[in-house]
Amino acid sequence: MYVSTKILLINLLIITISACSNRPILPDRKVEYKRQQVAKKDLEVPPDLTPGTIGNNMPIPQATGLGNSKTYSQYEAIRHNQTGISKTSNVLPKIPNIKVIRDGNQRWLEIQAPPAQVWNTVIDFWQKSGIVLVQKDPALGVMKTDWLENRADIKQNFISDFVRRNLGGIISAGTRDQFRIWIEPGATPNSTYLYLTHRGLEEQMMTSATSSDTQNPYWALRPSDPGLEIEMLRRIMLHFGVKAQAAKSRLVNAQNNQAQPRSRLTKSQNGEVVLLVGANLESAWSLVGIALERVGLTIEDRDRSAGLYYVQYDDPLKEKGQSFFSRLAFWRSTPKKDDSKYRLQLKFTSDAVTQVTVLDSNGQKEKSSTATRILTLVQEQIR
User: Residues 195, 185: contact at Cβ < 8 Å?
Assistant: First the structure.
């Protein structure tokens, strides 16, 4: 009876609102992610259960000089000396010295703190925001959020406000957002680069094959939103201790190092497709990494010193399988190639340009059309 009464009230409200054709449009709200249930605080990790490292062999947490056996009190003492985190307080130290680096519509942070401290602070940010991480890999310096519902995307009017107040979660947004962060040692000692990328889903309707009157909802990928990336970077900067106005100013006024044209595809003398990025190796490394994340290619590993990204890409246009005679050639000594794993090789040239090529899983030049498709996806993000 209670639910029926509410449904009747909603119908009456719809009739009332439909008569008001000149209702003013409310201004857009900021990001308002629905808080998720966080099972437990995972910032504190026992010292014997931290096998991972960030980037160039930088342990998280860092506690060196104690050998293989150490007590928890010893671990806490070293942790306090290295990161400045108090043993008796759960409050992480503020790190306001943050620089925003910009290239086109891509931005990342250079933080004057070691990666271990940055990692812990970012983990604390997600926890206090009520956001669950579905991936957290200190070995790669990577963390990824669950798919988040942005309540600000719900159309705001008198009806939706009434329903949300009285019927709870019966109305949901038709979009979902996911953020991925990876952390690397910066160019200067005790500094860290923090990169953040966004992926989005949008709810769409598909007509049923059995009935044209029936439509079934499904989630489809939508383009990455640089605006959401900026907003989330701003919130992270606030959590690190940057003042609100300073964070906004740094993100908006960050010097744009973009040159035109920024990148282009070309072919070498032997017919190999090459992506040329007009930047030094350090900048190109960041640009290519962000591009790979935005287009959804899975970065399984990376070796910055060798200029290598290890990615997985299931090419939908690639012909699968081998010919009959190829399958019979079991005597060949060539290692079997994984058709979904590739390497992106970055090399800096004397012309202030970084060359990006695609290698197969064995480190050999990838000569198929898949290499062109991978580099085209990357190039579209680096204009």
Answer: no
Q: Which residue ranges form the domains of the chain, and what is each CATH number?
A: 47-257 (no CATH), 273-318+334-381 (3.30.310.170)
Do residues 356 and 266 lie in contact, with contact meaning Cβ atoms separated by under 8 Å? Answer: no
Q: Is 272 helix (H, G, I), strand (E, B) or coil?
A: coil
pLDDT in tens, 316-342: 766 555 444 444 444 455 555 567 899
Stretch (H or E) spanning 101: strand 98-103
Q: Is the distance from CB of 289 to CB of 299 less than 8 angstroms?
A: yes
Q: Phi, psi (5° rounding) for residue 322? A: -125, 165
3-state secondary structure (DSSP) of residue 118: helix
pTM for the complete prediction? 0.70
What is the Cα 227 distance to its own chain's centre?
14
The tokens describing 370, both together, are 């898949």
d(CA 200, CA 296): 10
* Calculated CA dihedral for residues 274, 275, 277, 282, nearest 10 degrees: -80
- Centre a 10 Å sphere on the Cβ of residue 320 and count the other Cβ atoms it contains: 7
Q: Is the pLDDT of residue 9 over 80?
A: no
Q: What are phi and psi of 362, to 5 degrees?
A: -95, 5
Determine how many CB atoms are found less than 10 A away from the CB of residue 201: 16
Q: What is the dihedral of CA 169, 204, 340, 355, to 10 degrees?
A: -100
Confidence of residue 277 (pLDDT cuts 50, 70, 90): very high
